[in-house]
Amino acid sequence: MSTVEAPALPGxxxxxxxxxxxxxxxxxxxxxxxxxxxxxxxxxxNLLLLAVLVGIPxxxxxxxxxxxxHGGGGGDGLGAAFLFQVAGNGVFLSFLALTIMMTLxxxxxxxxxxxxxxxxxxxxxxxxxxxxxxxxxxxxxxxxYAAIVVFSLISCLLVAASALIVGVALFPVGPxxxxxxxxxxxxEGLLRLLFVVLYxxxxxxxxxxxxxxxxxxxxxxxxxxxxxMIITVASEVSDNIPQFAVVQPYLPTHWWLSFDSLLxxxxxxxxxTHGLLSIGVYIVIFCSIAWARFSNADVTR
Length: 301
Description:
By secondary structure, this protein is mostly helical. It has helices at 17-42, 44-67, 77-86, 92-101, 105-116, 119-124, 127-132, 137-170, 186-215, 221-238, 269-296, and strands spanning 176-177, 183-184. The protein is globular and about 55 Å long. The protein starts with 16 loop residues before the first helix and ends in a 5-residue tail after the last helix.
């Protein structure tokens, strides 16, 4: 019996079967991701949430322009430090907006999308039809989480960009005086702002992993969203109670504000590393829970 040989490539090289197989896997995955992102960004509810993210920094900037005198001042805590820095440099409005909105607004936005990721499909009866497509549950789950990560990044970028535009319009802009008292050029200040946005996005991606796991446990998206917010608020409250000092480093929200290390000279890489490591561990744990649950779940709707 004769065999059919694969056509030779120029120069006598054999075709790269592994590369073709990888492209055959990546392209459908990217198509699924584009479809998922299209669904997320076409929903009026999500667009309204993004509009809120853009609007809050605008209101915050106007309120500070009216109430905070020029020249700055003192204060206790990270928020107070940012508050008085804004009067001298509008770039700090982005840091202040991210700090304030990380406590509730950004988690709520991420909770809505991540909590609805699987539970919403199950509630609408479309999850079963998604699984009919020969994509595999693991691939579908990875697409869902990748879409949550992209949405988290875009949400944080919108907050920072909106606050930066308002800060430039309403306050002086120039060399940035860091929290440690060192003054750096405006270009370096903007670069540090980008790193802060990326750090906050990673923190929100961790919350998205928790939401994905909870969404895999229920067919009611409201229940998943509520559970995510309860976990977030409980963690933030516990992180401010001295009696819980032993467990505070292990709380999911404990390292969220560690990005202030990026606004000091020298940068405290130890705290940043601890924060990223904690966030990474949470992502691995809850993505594993979501995979273990979803890969064996009996989808009947």
